[in-house]
Amino acid sequence: MRRWLKKYGLVSCLLCLGFWPLGQSAYIPAKAWLAQDLMQRAWERAGDGDLEARPWPWADTYPVARLLADSGRVDLIVLSGGSGRTLAFGPGHLSASATPGDVGNAVIAGHRDTHFRFLRDVEVGDTMIVERPSGLQYLYEVIGNHVVDSRRGALTLDTDDAFLSLVTCYPFDAIDPGGPMRYVVTLRKLL
Amino acid sequence: MQTSNKPWHPPVGHLDTARHLGKKHSPWTVTAALWLLVLMPLLSNAEPVNPNEMKAGGLLLKMQDGYHAATTLNTDVDITVNGLVMRVKVRQQFRNTGTEWAEGIYVFPLPDEAAVDHMRLKVGERIIEGEIQEKEKARKAYEKAKAEGKKTTLVEQQRANLFTTAVANIAPGEAVTVEIEYLEEARYDAGTFSFRFPMTLTPRYMPGSPLADRKGSGWSADTTEVIDASLISPPMVQRSNEHRVSLDVFVNAGVPLDIIASRYHPVSIREEAGRYSVSLDDPDTRLDHDFELVWRPLADSKPRAMSFSEIIDGESYYLLMLVPPVEGRVAPLRMPRETIFIIDTSGSMHGTSINQAKNALGRALQRLLPGDRFNIIEFNSVMRPLFNDSVDASTANLSHAQTFVARLQANGGTEMKPALKFALSSPVTETHLKQVIFITDGSVGNEDALYRVIEQQLGATRLFTVGIGSAPNSWFMRKSAELGRGTFTIISAMHEVGEKMDRLFAKLEAPQVTDIQIDWPAGVDAYPSRVPDLYLGEPVSVRVRADAPFPMGESINIAGNMPGERWTTEIPVTDDHSAFGVGALWARARIAELSDAARRGANPDEIRASIVETAMTHHIVSKYTSLVAVDKTPVRPAGAPLSKDQVPNLMPHGQSANAIFGFPATATPAAALRLQAAVFLLLAALTFLIQRRRRASLA
C-alpha cells in the first residue's frame, strides 16, 4: 500500500483535483438545460391556471414568462427572481421590475455561458416573443446593445413604454465569474 | 528499494527544476509545449475589456459619465469630546494616481446635525483657509479658479447629512489634503452618552422618472421626484485598496465613567486623569461601517443637568441639557395598543440588513399581549400589508405573522410613500394607543416628500423609526421620528438587536413627559422652540441665544406633565462650562427649524434669507452656503487637460451592489472550473511522465 501510494499517490491526487471540477463544470450546463425541460412542463401547468406552478415540488421559484428568440431556436422559460439559485435553472425576472408585457422596464437576467449565450449574436432590429402564463404573446424588437460597468450604473425601472432589458455578464468568454461588466440588450414592445 | 532513500519531491519542485530536467530528458520540452498548446486557448479567452468598445449609456441605463479611476482617497478623523460638545476634524487625502491633471469629487456622509464651520486646503506646506459664501457665489469662485488652473476646493451640503468635497487641479502623482471641521452634540439617552461617525452611505433609491439634464455625475439621472439625484448617487465599489480610515477620539466626559466602549470596531483605550484616548486598533480600517462610541457615567454621578456657554460679539449662547425628575415612577395600567410595523424589503436591505430587520420584527411581535392589535406592512417597489386591517394579537395571528416575517426577502425599489400612508391612514380608536414602528435603512432620495406625508397624516399616531444596516440614513431616522413624535433607534449588528429592541419597547411602554415648558427671560431665542415629548430616559436639550448673559446664581424654571401629575424643576445658571462651538450649534438648530418651516409652506425667499444670514454669521455650511478655498498661484499649465473624477464610496459592510443596481451575477463558474480541471489533469500527466522517467533512469 505504501509503495503504491509512493508510486501513484501524487498522480492520483492530481487526477482527483482535476476530475472534480471537470465534473462540476459539466454539471452546470447539464442542470441548466435539464431544468428547462422540467420547466416547460410547469409552464403548461401554469397555462392551465395553476398560477404559481412550481417546476419541482421544493423549488423556491416559479415560471413567469417564456422567451422565444432566433425564430424559435431559443425557447426559454423565465423564472421569478434573480438569485444565484434561480439563475442556475433559467433566466430570472427581477421581481422589482415590471411584468414582461406591461408598461415599464422588465429586467431578465441570465448566465452568459448557458441560457443567455445567444445574446452575443443578437442584433438591433431582431425580434423576440414574450409569452405570459395566460398564453398572451407580445412581440419585442431589439433597439440597443450596451456594455456597462455594473458598479457605476443602474437600470431605469419606471418607463412610460413597455421595455425589456436582457442582462448577462460580459465578456462572454471570460474565465472569472465575478466580473463587473454586464451586457444589456434593450427591447421595445411592438405589439 | 532504492527510491525509498530519496527525498520526496513536491510537484512544484519538479517544475522548479525544469531547466535541469530539460537537459536530461528531451521529452520534457515536448510535454511542456503540449501543455501550453492546451492551455493557450483557455487563457486567451480571458480577454480584457477594451474601454473603447464600451458604449456606456443607453436609453434605460443610468450610467455616470467620465470614469478614469485615478483619484483615490483616504480619511483621517480626530474627535474631541468636551461634555456634550464635540469637535470633529476630518482630513480627506485625495491622491491623483493618473497621468492627467484631475478634479476629484467625493460625496460623503456626516452626522445629520453636524455644523460644518471650517475647511482648509493644504498644498504642500501652505494652508488656505476656506471662506463661507452663498452657494452660487462659492461655486462660481470655484469654477473660475478651476478654469484658471489654480488649486481650489469647495465643500457643499446636499442633504442635512450628505456633503460633497470638490478639489480641482491636482497634479499627476500629487496628494492634496482637505481638512473639514464640524461641531456636534453627543447624544445622551438612558444615562449613556454616544455618538456615531458615519463612514459611507447606502445607495439611495430615486423615485420618479429621469429628467433630460443632469447636475452631477452620479450613477442616477436627476428625476422628477429627486431633482438632485445625480449629485447624491456616487459610484459604489465593493472592494478597494484605498478607502482606509484612521480615527482617534479624546473624551473629556466631565464625570467619572463606568464604561467606555466602541460598538462595532476594535479599539484601544487609554485613561489619564479621568480623560480617555480612544483609537482604532486596525490601522487599515475600511471606510464601510459607521463608528459608534458609547460612554456611561458611574451610577451615582449621572448628570441631572449640564450647561455649556459661549459668548460671541456680546451675545450669549447656551447649550442646556436636563434630565426630568421622573425616574422610578411607574406607569399606570398598560393601555392596549395597536402596533403597525412597516418593514423595508427593498434591494438596499439585501444582505445582513434584512436579517437584522427580520430579527428585530420577530422580537417586537413577541412583545405584543392579548388585547393588543397589530399589522405588518412590507414594501419595496410595491406595498403589501399582511392583513387588510389590524387584527388581534391572538396566537394564531401571531404565528401567521412570524411565518410571514420569516419568508420576507429583500429586492426591488424603495417606494415608501404608499406604505407610510397606509399605516398612518387607519383611524385611531379610543381604546387603543396607535404606534407605527418603521424598520428601514432610510436609503431614499426624496426625504422631504416623506417628511411631508408624516406631518400631514400623523394625527394621534406616534411613529418610531428603527434604522438598520452598516450605514443607515441617520437624518431620515431622526427627523421622521421627530416629526412622528416618537423616537429612533439604530441597529447595525445582529448581536445588538435584542438589547436595542428591548430598550425601544421599554420606551413605548413607559409613560411620556409631555407639554414641557421653559420660562425664558426676555430676549431669548431657543431651539427647538417647542420641546418635544420625552420618552423614558430622554433629556430635554435646548440651544439658546440670549441678548444678555443669564444672571449668575439664578435659575430657569422648567415644568412638564406626567400621567396624573405635573412636575417643575429648575436649571441653575452656572458659568463653569465655557465651550467653543455652542454658537455654531445654536445656528445649526435654528437652520433645521427654518428648513422645517419651509417644508410646511413658509415663504421660501424669507426662509432662504434667514438661513443665509444665520449661516454667514456663524460661518457654517448649509443648504444655501458653502465653504470655498482658492490658492493664488496657477499651477496647471494653460492647455493641459483636466479630467473630472468622481471618487467612489465603499459599499456598506454586509451589503451587495448587485441587489441594488439591478445587475445580478450572470456568469457560472463553469469556465473557471474547466480551466482548473485542465491544469490539474495536465499536472497529473506531467508528474506521471516525470516520475516514470526518473524511475527508469534510476533503475
Structure description:
The complex is a heterodimer of chains A (191) and B (699). Chain A is of the alpha+beta class and 191 residues long. In chain A, 26% of the residues lie in helices and 31% in strands. Chain A has one domain (23-189): Sortase, Chain: A (Beta Barrel). In chain A, β2 (74-80), α2 (84-87) and β3 form a beta-alpha-beta unit. The mean pLDDT of chain A is 81. In chain B, 44% of the residues are buried. Chain B contains 14 helices and 36 strands. In chain B, strands 2, 3, 5, 6, 10, 14, 16, 17 and 18 form a nine-stranded mixed sheet that branches. In chain B, strands 22, 23, 24, 25, 26, 27 and 28 form a seven-stranded mixed sheet that branches. Chain B has a six-stranded mixed sheet with strand order 7-34-8-9-4-35. Chain B has four domains: 3-44 and 670-698, no CATH class; 71-298 and 624-646, Immunoglobulin-like; 310-325 and 513-618, no CATH class; 337-509, Rossmann fold. Chains A and B meet through α1, β4, β6, β7 and β8 of A and β1, β13, α13 and α14 of B. β7 (153-155) of chain A pairs antiparallel with β1 (61-63) of chain B, so a sheet runs across the interface.
